[in-house]
Every structure is written in structure tokens, then in C-alpha cells.
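fwd from M.: "can u put these together and see what the complex looks like"

so here's what she sent:
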Amino acid sequence: MRILIVEDETIVAHRLARLLSELLGKRIRNITIQKSHQEAASALRDETPDVLFLDLNLNGRDGFELLTHAVSCSFHVIVVSANVDRALEAFEYGVLDFVPKPFSAKRLRKALERIDKTGGKAEHRARHLSVRIGDAVELIPLESVASIQGADNYSEIICINGRRLLHQKTLSRLETLLPDDFIRVHRSHIVNLHHAGALHSSEGSRYELTLSDGRSVPVGRTRVKTLRDALI
Amino acid sequence: MKRALLVVCLLLYCAPTIAAQDSLPLQLPGQVAFRAQDNLQFSQPGFNDSGWQRIDWWKIAFTGGPVWLRWHLTLPRRLTDSDKPAGLFLTAFASSEIWWDGYRLGSNGSVAASPGAERPGRSRAVFFVPRRLLRAGDHVVALRLSAQHASAWIATPVDSVQLATYGSPLTAAQAQYRLSLASVGALLLAAIILLAIRWRNRDRTALWLAAACLALLAQLATQISRAFLDYPYTWQGPRLTLIAVFAYLTGWMLLGFLLSRYGSRHRNAWLIGAGLLASPMLFPFGESDFHTFSILLVFLTVGLIASLLAARASRRDAWLSVAVIGLLLVTLLLQPERFLHGWVYPGFTLLLCIYFIDYTRAQARIRQALAQAQLTGARLELELLKKHLRPHFLMNTLTAAAEWLEKSPEQGSAMIEAVAEEFRLLDRIASRRLIPLNDELALTQSHMTVMGYRHDQTYELRACNMPGKAQVPPAVFHTLAENALTHNRYGSRRVTFSLAAETTDGGRIRFTFRCPPGDTSPQPSSEGTGTTYVKARLREAFGSDWTFNAGTTPEGGWATVIEVPER
């Protein structure tokens, strides 16, 4: 696992690195510490981490600009900050976890379990998806998303108006960030239940879900029951 | 609201003095036959006084005696038709006996040729005149006087002689002072309030004004005592002396108030000079009116000059004094008789009341400013403490402390002690407007120590040429250091900040706080919350008498220069 820590407080960064090393042990490939947004942005261009630990207040500057950019990338973002009053806002942008300072090994373990999906979904759910379009980042409201389709290491976001956008996160990673009204109906499909229509069965025990935009998405056999329960 | 209350109080004090007026008295003719000899035959109406001196009775100047005055008068029909009893009202600072057409009406004291033999009469006497004597036509009134105990204040002992309805002159004399009696309440009320202000605030200006009110009150009381008290004429001299003394004190206290109110320079010189100039008027010679006139002239003139100088020195409220004192002075000069006998007490009472209202309004403004300053001080104290309770500082500090405790317990304990020391210092100084420079340096260094533990670096403050007893607002340099450490990154293990002080002309100190250049960091913004706090503290401590400048140094660092008065 490649970890990037963006933290201007030396001892806090060392603590984070030390505890992560103790918790992850040999799973860690490398831990990089950057002390400013500019250095972090440069490091992200050079190498993509698996998870980013980001402090929102670096040298007195607000880290939300970097956050908005980071959540559009393929890696998970975990915010480590002293200001918990912005936690909800951070979650709405699509962070996996918000670890308040001061933190203990126990709290970090809980955050790491979310990466492994053994710890369940994010505490608060995203309300937008940050999508990189060229050099800019666009925030897509989740209520306008009809479904998300896996595309190798990317995810294709299909909006209700037919617009299609590519997100750098895998479908599995997005799934941990999305609210409960987004349900994974297939290995390669997540649908927004607000835009779900009828569930149809066809030959060979295949199931399809019709969406409000007229499209149909396949439903995996093992997920039919969950979907039916959700549709009721 | 306060003005209305003042008017009501004035009216309440006026109320008891409002009385019904009686019919007008008949003054005896001005010309009178005068003889500085004594013979009881002079009392007879048929006595030939054609060879006597003819003089206006109010100009008759004598001491000792006995002397005689004879009036020849003609009574009009209307007075003789009156069904009310009549009396001859005499105000004379002498013992007296009086005859009407040879009929002895009575005596006031006993007229005699030597001080030992004379029994001093009352200053006022009323002699009943039987109706049968008041026929229309010619009459002769003979007055025998002696003033063996006369004071040097009294040159002309006979003050008034009039024939009127019995008793009415007394009420008329009292009615004359109605407006002045209204002043009694206003002056007493103002004096009490001002003394209360003085007792609460130790304000010397209030004491001057209260003393002026009380002096004028005493002067007024002494003046109007003549209308309400029946006293031997021998008291007239001391009474006039008291009036002169109280007039002097009123003028002097008023001058003291003006000088104190406007912060005039050389106050003592003004007071001594004016006091010496007016002091000859305290000695009895000549008419007392002249003394009162001179005393008022001196103090009003000096007061006017002092007010003018204050107004020219940008004390805008001094123009009110110039206007009111100027008006009184002009009135005194143009109408001295009327002023001294009618307007002096209402005029000065009005003057003191105007000053009272103006002064209390100024006090209210000061109290409001003080309350605002206290609120500002409380806000600044809260702001300073909140800065250190803000999550960014507190949580990062606790996180670093947790790491040190786990990694190196000794260092962790030392860090916790450093944090405790910083909070102790903050708690001690946060509520103060100024603190010793040494305390500020200790606070700044303690913060640098804590930040050093957080950043695993050593931050130190090098202070040069610090004035030993200088006072600065709390957490000024602490905030500058905090700003620098928040907005900058320093790569080296040991980072030194410097603070230099130099004394400039005019008793001021210039502090220069230098931050070394950071690694790749932007400089602190000029108007962040830290700078706002520093400027607010400077304003609280020094008003507008400070300067604050900040900018980059040639080495790429940052310097802040603060100049303040030396305290």
C-alpha cells in the first residue's frame, strides 16, 4: 500500500506514519510525507498513492481545494484534522473517513478497515461526486446520477440526462462512498434507486432493472433479493 | 429626560416661593431736610427746617449721630381711603425714632450719642401709622438716627423709607427674591449630585463645580437673609463681608472649574493671579455693591479669557463658556445696578446649571467610552484565550504531546510543561491592558518552545536592548511569532527570531520583530486575524498614539515595526 500523508505539523505527521506502519506492517510499500498543498500536488503527479491522509489546515490555508481535487482521483482520501466542524462537508465531497485530532491507533485502525471494506461504509455519505474534466474538477450531484458502470479501473457515471462522465475510482471504491440509495446490482453496475423502475426476469434466470431513462442494467442473481427488498 | 427632571426640580423648589403680591408702597420724597445735630424739637411739624441741608435721603452718609431727617410729603386720596392698616417701613442700619406730624410712632433700638448708650436697632422696622393721621394733604415725617456701631461697609445707613399697607413691604421684600429662591433648590441639587460624582470618581472638576454651587448658594442665602431675618443693624457689616467673601469664592471656584474642565495649563498661576487681583475687594471700604461688582468683573473676565484660550486650543465645548460668560460680563458692564440687584443670582445659577448639564453629559460620554473600552478589553481577552482553545492549536498540540509521550516520555512531559507554562502566562496577562515587557518575552518564548515540540525544531527569541521597565499590550509579539510559525515553514533545526528596541525622541520606543526567511513559504498576510488582534490591543492601550508597519526584509524574511509611547 502506498500512503501519502499531507501534514505540515512534523510530529503529527511522524505519529501518523508511525501508527500506520505499526498497523499495516508489511502491507506498506511506502509512506510519503508532504508539508504543503503544492508539494502534495506535485507528488500526486509523480505517483498515485492508494490512500491519501490529508490535513485540511496547512500553513494556515484551507485544504478544501486540494480535497476537491483529491477525491476525484483513484485513491481513497481520509481527512485528519483538528476542525471537526467541517467533517460533514468533507464527507459530502466523498472522503472515506474523517479522523479528528488527536488520534489513536485504534481510531486509525477503524479508518483502515473502511479501506478494506471490512469496516463498513463511510460514516457519512457523499452528496457529490468529483469528476475531473481536463484540468478542472466538476462536482456532480448524486441525485442526477442514474447509474454507475464499471470500466476497468474507472467508473462511468451515467447521469439522468444521458451525460456520461468517467471517474478515476473503481466501482468498489465508489461503492464505499455512496449513500444507501445507491445499490450495487451487478459486478459492474451500481444504480440509483430513485431512478429505478421495474425488475424484469428473462430467459436463463437473467434479471434486468429498467431505469427511468429507459435503459436497462443487468442484475446479478445473488443481488436480486437485496434489490427486491430495496425496491419495496 | 435629564433636562425635564431638572426643570421639574426647579419648579418644585420655586413653588413654595410663589406668594400673592400686596399693594405697592409709597416711597417718601427723595429730597429730605438733613441736620447732623440733635434736638427733640426737630420732631415738631411746625419746626422751620428751611435752613437745613437738602439732600437725597439715600445719599446721606454719616456715622455716630444722632442726626435728623425731615420729609415734607402730601398724601393722595387713594391711600387715605384704603381700609387696610398702614405702616411706615424703614430699612436703616442705625437705631431710629420716628414722628408723624409730631406724633411719635415708635423707636427701633435706642438712639444715643455714644456707642455705650446706644441700643442697636433692627435693620428693618415697621411703624404703625394710625388712620387718623393719614388724612389727605401735607404731612411732616421726622426721623432721628444714630449709628454708633456702623460698619465701614455702610456709608449710607438709610436704605429705604416707605409708607404702605402694613406688612406689605415685608412680603414685597421677600417677593423680590422669588426667582433667587428658585435658584436655591437648583444649586443645592446640583451640588449634591456633583459631590456624589466626586465621591465616586474622585473627579476634581466635579469638586470645583460643587464648591462653586455651594459658594453661590451661601452668597444667595446671606443676601436674601435680609428679607427673611430680622437682625440688629450691627450684623450688616459682617453680613456684607460674608457676601463679598462668598462672591469671591463663587468666582474663584468657577474659575477653578473652567481651568480643570478644559485642562488649561498653569492652572495654579491663573487661580493665584485672579485671586490676588480680586482680593482687595474683600476689605471693607466704600459701597459693598462696588466690591461685588469688582469681584465679578475680575473672575468673569479671567474666566472668559481662559475659555477663549481653551476654545482656540480646539476644545469646542469651551465656546459655550465664552458665550455665557461673555453675556454675563456684558450685562454686568452695561447694567451694573440691575445686574447686581436683580440678575446676578439667576444669571449665575443659570451659568452653573448649564455647566452642570454639560459636565454630566460629558461624564456620560466618558462612561460610555469606558464601558465600550471595557467591552473591547473583555473581547480582546476572550479573543486571546480563544486563540489557544481553537481546535487547530489545541488538537495539534495534544496530538504532538501524545506522540512525544509514546516515543520519548521525557520529551513528552517537557512538552506538556511548556504548554502549561504558556497557558499560565496567558491566564495571568490576558485581562490586562499593559504588561511588563519581560512577561511578554516570556510568553513569546514559551509559545516558541511549544511549537518547537510540535515541529521537532528549536525556535528561539533573541531580544536586544530591551528597556527594563517598558510596558506593552499583552500577546503582541506572541501573536507575531504565532503568525510566523503558522504561515511559514523553516527547514533548519534551529530558527532564531529577533526583537530589537530603541528609544526615539519624544519618549517613544520602537520595537522591531524580525522573522527569518522560511523555506518556500508565503509571508504572513498583512491583515489576518493576528494582525487585527495586535492593532486592537495597541488601540486599547495607546488610543491612536502608535504605529504598525510590516514588510519583507532584504534577506527575504519578515519584519514588523511597532512604535509606542514609553510607559
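replying to her w this: Residues 51 and 76 of chain A are 5 Å apart (CA to CA).
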